[in-house]
Amino acid sequence: MSYQLYYALGSAAMGVRALLEEIGAPYELIETTIDMDKPRPREQLALNPNGWVPVLVWGNDSMYECAAITVFLCDRHREANLAPAIDDPARARFLQTLVYFSNSVQTAFQTNYYPDRFVDTPADEPSAQRRGIRRLRETWKVIDDQIGDNEWLLGDRFSAADIYLFMLTTWLAPARGHPQTREFPNVKRIADAVTRRPSIQLVYDAWLAEQDALGS
Prior knowledge:
By secondary structure, the protein is an alpha+beta fold. Helices cover about 50% and strands about 10% of the residues. It has 2 domains: about 5-80, Glutaredoxin; about 90-215, Glutathione S-transferase Yfyf (Class Pi), Chain A, domain 2 (Up-down Bundle), CATH 1.20.1050. The protein is built from 9 helices and 4 strands; from the N terminus they run βαβαββααααααα. It has a 4-stranded mixed sheet, covered by helices on one side. The longest helix is centred in the middle third of the chain and has 23 residues, at about 90-115. The radius of gyration is 17 Å and the shape is globular.
C-alpha cells in the first residue's frame, strides 16, 4: 500500500513520516506549510478544512490528526510491531499516552505558540503564553514520571509512542522559555535513544545537524 502525506518541516507530519519509514511502506510527500498566513493547497483543505498537517491519503481514503494516524498505521501494519495488539494489556497505556500527547502536551505547545486561539484580546496573549510554558512543565513531568525506570514508554518494547515523544521534544524552544529535555531525565533518555534510529536520522537530519551546531 502506497501513501501520500501532506508534509511541512517542523510539523507533526514529520513524526508520521518517521513512522512510515519504520513500517517500510512506500509514500510520497506533498509539501505544504504550517504558516497560517500562507495559502494551503486546495486539495489539502478539502481533506482537512482546519488546514493543518499531517493529512494521510491512501487510495480514495484520507484522515488527519497525528495520534489517530499513528494508531491507524500501527494497526494496519502489524508486521512492524510498533504497537501492542488490541488484546495486549499494554494497549491501554499505548492509547492513553498518545491521547495525552495529543490533548495535553500539544495543547500546551499551542497555548504558547498560538495564544490568539485561546484568548479574546491581544492584551491577554502574554498571559496565555506564560500559562502554556507552565503547562508544558506540568505535562512533561507527568510523562517523565510515567516512564520511570522503563527502557521505553511501554516498558521494554519500542513503539510508535516513543517516536511521538521524540517528535514533541523537537518542538521545545528554550529561547521561548520552554523547559529543556534535561529537566526530565527519563524523557531525555528515550528521546536520545530514538534519535539513533535510521528513520529519525533520515527525517530529522536538518534538525539534528542544528542541534549538533548548538551543542545540544
